[in-house]
Amino acid sequence: MTRSDAIELAQTQFDSGEFRQTLARRIAMATESQNPQRAAELGVYLNAELRPALEAMGFACQTLTQAQAAAPFLFAQRIEDGKLPTVFGYGHGDVIRGQEAQWIDGLSPWRLDERDGRWYGRGMADNKGQHSVNLQALANVLQARGKLGFNAKILIEMGEEVGSPGLRGLCEEHKALFRADVMIASDGPRLSAERPTLFLGSRGCLNFDLSIEARQSAHHSGNWGGLISNPGIQLAHAIASIVSGSGQIRIPEWLPAELPDVVRRALADCEVDGGEDGPSIEPLWGEPGLSPAERVFGWCSFEVLACRVGNPEAPVNAIPPRAWARCQLRFVVGIDPHDILPALRRHLDRQGFAMVQIESVRAEMSQATRLDPENPWVQWTLASIEASSGKNPALLPNLGGSLPNDIFADILGLPTIWVPHSYPGCSQHAPNEHLPAALLREALSIMTGLYWDLGDGNTPHGLLAD
Known about the structure:
The chain is α+β, with helices and mostly antiparallel strands and about 475 residues long. The protein has 14 helices and 19 strands. The chain has helices at about 5-15, 20-25, 40-55, 130-145, 165-175, 220-225, 230-240, 260-265, 290-295, 340-350, 375-390, 405-410, 435-455, 460-465, and strands spanning about 60-65, 75-80, 85-90, 115, 120, 150-155, 180-185, 195-200, 200, 205-215, 220, 300-310, 320, 320-330, 355-360, 370, 395, 415-420, 435. α2 runs antiparallel to α4 and α4 (about 130-145) packs across α13.
């Protein structure tokens, strides 16, 4: 068979409904890693669902554990020849809570339903649909060629939605086992539903709490107003000192020195599009002088995720004793992650807000990563995607969101290539999670072509080895 035959096989397999049946079975498994009562489901997904599928393709599978992880990992490898390139793949089978009561009438997070050309179900976009596309594409190449023509290693975790506990330690412990030439994986959204996309890393993410504990209890606002401080007012002013009223960050240490030319060039033809269900971009919000794509993929952003002062459900005429806000910084390469909170402390002290307490939410943060867009694997992958789709793929130096990509890039030392199979309006982490069936069909064609090309011998493997 030829490359075209393999892609036609992928499309026929999708149109037959076979892929949908496989995905429906996986969606039906309520693998909520945030719900302790679903712990058993996590292991079932790996051992009863994915392991048999991988073993049927000639992969040797093993369950790996790590002391800090709450769930096991599945590692699978198919080694055809030590001289061939080795590709590392990654995915996660856990999902966030189903939020069953909030879905559209007639839809369930644990059932694949189709409406208006969209496939609904929890994990459809994040990440069962995406890694299922890649696994099926590998099966298509094996059926068409009788072999992959490259070596494949795949790691599936079940704790990504709770911060990937143990993943870093696992990769440190098994560096030799996970050795490869390149990582090619799928997560996150395309730039738009219609445009195939490649991204090379992700923005870092740090969540932290700001709080003021002014006193033990509330006091009558008539008797004490104007005499004692209001922590709600103080915290509002403290936040206003961090970011302008139009979203521009005011802490110099939280901003890159510049937007690199290679990043600017890559983003020049990228238009952010959330689809018909996405919000409208506000041109005056964020860093001035940057395009929307540059603001979300090349710059940093600060957000207030939640805040509380007093009793919002039943306000009373009293000065509250405390105020709290959960905040977040998304940051790009060039920001010193170890100086983010110290820089905030220095800034607040200079502004007269020494009373504001700062506390990191997690022991670890997602680090910022960005593979050089001129890396040979990048151009090779772009050419493969274009050949399969007939479209000019978007190249994003990094995802606007965050992934544990620094583990693969820094600990395993891999060039990291992400080919996402979702889109910005997919309702990821929300009720009614879905993907367009047409996007999934195209993604299956793209990945089948990509894996076919990996086995054709014309990869950067030999070039980088020299």
